[in-house]
Design a protein that fits this description.
- The chain is of the alpha+beta class.
- Helix content is 44%, strand content 14%.
- It has nine helices and eight strands.
- The longest helix is centred in the middle third of the chain and has 20 residues.
- The radius of gyration is 24 Å and the shape is globular.
- 19% of the residues are buried.
Length: 290
């Protein structure tokens, strides 16, 4: 623990090591930024909204964590909680089109600004008011946040907001462990002979594997890696994820591996040719392809 700032160091998890290493290859890139905006309910002013965020940050050490290399070893550094201060911007006086454009610009700027891993906190936030409600623009580095974190973060913002409006205690569970506890446990599980065994298995299993996943893309892979793209959101049929999980267990694989195989099949030239042939048949016959 430092004399000036109360902080504690713990081993970095293996996931944090992977993210840190990848981030070093392009430290100026915001590709590992996760944007998690949220709208506060009506009735909360900027101070109350800031207090809600402050309570979530106080509960979760990853939101007070940064990474550092000590004697050649990557560690996660957890700082004691300090009151959160959020910049605010009230856009209500702007014309509607200009207001929307300004909001999008703020959100984009926040999402595309790189977050250094060696200085706390590993997130950036701003409160913006468009109408009666304040909105939270929140961008956080993947080293301390993932998709499950987003679910918990949103749920706790809602719980503390309800508590602020009603005066009742926030309905949030006790936290049995923090992420640093998991990292220590993980290191203990994969240490000594067990780590050597795991490394030997994967070194042998992945020998000769291509340096990148060879998806059948419809355009040549660019020489310079880029991150231009978009997201497509859609709903999966009920029960599909359960069936994917069952298939993964039967194949001694993970759901990710099953979905990646399905994605590769979807992109395969043979399937694309069959789909184009089906569309031609549909145009010729006037009947949908079977």
């Amino acid at each position: 623990m430092s004399d000036d700032v109360r902080e504690w160091t713990f081993p970095a998890s293996f996931a944090q090591e992977r993210v840190w290493m990848a981030n070093q290859l392009d430290a100026g890139s915001p590709v590992y930024n996760i944007s998690n905006p949220w709208a506060f309910p009506a009735g909360l002013d900027a101070d109350a909204a800031t207090a809600v965020v402050d309570q979530v940050v106080a509960r979760h050490e990853p939101l007070r964590t940064h990474l550092r290399v000590d004697d050649g070893t990557l560690v996660q550094v957890v700082r004691a909680h300090e009151p959160v201060r959020l910049p605010t911007e009230d856009l209500r006086d702007l014309p509607e089109a200009e207001r929307t454009a300004r909001f999008v610009a703020l959100r984009t700027e926040l999402a595309r600004t790189p977050i250094p891993l060696d200085a706390p906190p590993l997130w950036r936030a701003r409160l913006v008011r468009l109408d009666d409600n304040w909105s939270l623009l929140f961008v956080v580095h993947h080293a301390v946040f993932d998709s499950h974190s987003a679910v918990l973060f949103t749920a706790e913002l809602a719980a503390f907001s309800r508590a602020a409006l009603t005066g009742a205690p926030a309905d949030v569970p006790e936290l049995p462990i923090q992420y640093a506890d998991f990292a220590v446990w993980q290191r203990g599980q994969l240490a000594g002979p067990e780590l050597d065994r795991q490394l030997a298995f994967w070194t042998d299993h992945l020998a000769g594997a291509p340096p990148v996943t060879g998806l059948p893309l419809d355009r040549p892979r660019p020489a310079q890696l880029g991150f231009a793209g978009d997201e497509v959101h859609f709903e999966l049929p009920d029960g599909l994820l359960d069936r994917i999980g069952q298939l993964a267990v039967g194949a001694t694989a993970t759901p990710y591996m099953v979905l990646l195989a399905a994605f590769a099949a979807l992109l395969s030239p043979d399937l694309r040719r069959r789909r184009r042939g089906g569309r031609r048949l549909h145009r010729r016959s006037g009947h949908p392809p079977s």
